Amino acid sequence: MNGAAAQTDGYAIEVKRLIKAYGEHYALRGIDMSVKWGEFLAIFGPNGAGKTTLLKVLATIVKPSSGGVSVAGFDLREDAVKVRHRIGVVFHQPLLYDDLSAYENLRFYGRMYEVPDLKDRINQLVAQVGLESRLHDPVRTLSRGMQQRLAIARALIHDPPILLLDEPGTGLDQQASAMLADIIISTLTKQRTVIMTTHSLEQGAALGNRIMIMADGKIAYEESKQLDISSLREVYYQHTGVKN
Amino acid sequence: MRSAAGKTLAIVWKDITSEMRTKEIATSLVAFALLVIVVVSFTLEPGQNTSSIAAGILWVAFTFAGVLGLSRSFVIEKDKGCLQGLMLCPVDRSILYLGKMLSILAFMIVVEAIILPVFIVLLDQSGFPPQLAVIALLATIGFAAVGTLFSAMAVNTRAREVMMPLLFLPVASPVIIAAIKSTGLVLSGESWGAIASWLGVMAAFDAIFLAVSPLVFEFVIEE
Asked: Residue ranges of the alpha helices (H) in chain A?
């Protein structure tokens, strides 16, 4: 694993008193959390809870207003480039260029990450996400489900030890969503740490070995053991006031 | 150093490959610039000394075509969230700036190479003075250097089509004025010496913005 070799002792992610404000609006209000190597953390919460902002901060796209964040042992402010080497990110948008083919998109990102033996790596990933037959088709001709599978291949091109997934199944039908979940499971390795935000309690509970519920920019609930879906629904309702 | 250059060129390759498929930016730029030159050429009388007016026409066409292209360049990145994809890449933000700046520069140079011969013919200019190529290059570098920055800034605003020229044109005015003045002198048959000071203004403008823009680009694109 490209980046996993760099650091696997300590925590994969440590967040201390993280605050993110946009003017007078606070998106994150003092988040404290740590994620161990190899953990799969599922984060739930209603719209506006701060899930996406938290992931964007961890992904170095959004700068924190205050607080400390360390990813793979590197400080987010001091070593942002090193952090980016060690994370793969999938948002609900695929972050792919419509007019380039699947292969060209992966080659572009592979060059940006300086991936060795890029052609072999692309073929391996495309086989993993089941897109071999559409490799040279423009992205705009792929279905939404295929684009999200390709987005996972993009995020894994440099074999990162940490994967951040922000509602990757948004807009997918049940079949495509289940296929995406299977692919996510197939990408898990012993040392890969995953943080996934999702509205689907079923999917998050099935994939995660730890859960967290966010509400109003804060962590409202945390649980390290897996909950059955009815208990999770109850806890979610208690902390968010929203039925899921 | 080699790795930074490779990543910069990867961004340029990606933009040029996309553009060759869609021809979205080049077509609108060429069409707009040609339209301006053709329409304005009808206002000039045959045999009239048009060198200073022609210079203005040429740079109005280049400037507004350039504004169109600059806006599109970042809208394409923003549309499918690709700007976030670029921001996730493990490179200094200045590399992203340089890659986008060089892409825009390449598009504008291609458009200018198409427009200039049409301009020479339609505005009845006697041949193509070599100084014009140097003026166009220096002005276009400055244009792309400052334009890339403001285009990235405007793409995050709601009224980006309006914001882009409002932000960009006042800052780019020194290079536009220098380009118009020096082009006018060249078209009226003046030598290199007569335009040296204007070339100096453009070179200084380019140097300042090429040094400052990569440093501030990070603050422009990050939330």
From this structure: 51-58, 80-85, 102-112, 118-128, 144-156, 174-187, 201-207, 229-240
Query: Considering only CB atoms, which chain B residues are within 8 Å of A55?
Result: none
Kindly list the residues from chain A whose CB atom is less than 8 angstroms away from the CB atom of residue B18: 97, 99-100
CA A194, CA A164: separation in Å to the nearest integer?
Answer: 6
Place of tokens 């570098």: B141
Burial (CB count <10 Å: 0-12, 13-18, 19+), residue A54: buried
Specify the 3-state DSSP secondary structure of A5. coil
What is the signed CA dihedral for A166, A175, A143, A98, rounded to 10 degrees? 20
Q: Which tokens belong to A8? A: 């696997």
Pairing label, strands A193-197, A162-166: parallel
> Is residue A222 classed as helix, strand or coil in its secondary structure?
strand
Across the interface, whether the CB atoms of B22 and A62 are under 8 A apart is answered no
The answer to whether A91 contacts B81, with C-beta atoms less than 8 Å apart, is yes
Structure tokens at A149: 């599978």
What are residue B95's phi and psi, to 5 degrees? -65, -40
CA distance B96 to chain A (A): 10
**Is B43's Cβ below 8 Å from some Cβ in A?**
no
Judge: A84–B90 Cβ closer than 8 Å, yes or no: yes
In this prediction the pTM is 0.90
CB contacts of A109 in chain B (<8 Å) are 85, 89
Instruction: Note whether A119 contacts B: Cβ–Cβ < 8 A.
Output: no
Residues A186 and A156: their CA atoms lie apart, in Å, by: 12
Give residue-wise pLDDT tens across range A3-52.
444 455 689 999 999 999 999 999 999 999 999 999 999 999 999 999 99
Cβ of B91 and A81 within 8 Å? Answer: yes
Choose the closest CB to B90 out of A62, A85, A104: A85
Q: What is the pLDDT of residue A1?
A: 47
Residues 6+ apart with CB under 8 A from B58: B37, B115, B116, B119, B123, B183
Q: Are B55 and B132 in contact (CB under 8 A)?
A: no
Determine contact: A144 vs chain B, CB below 8 A: no
Q: How confident is the model over B37-78, as pLDDT tens digits? A: 888 888 877 766 677 788 999 999 999 999 988 888 888 888
Instruction: Note whether B21 contacts A: Cβ–Cβ < 8 A.
Output: yes
Output the pLDDT for position B47. Answer: 67
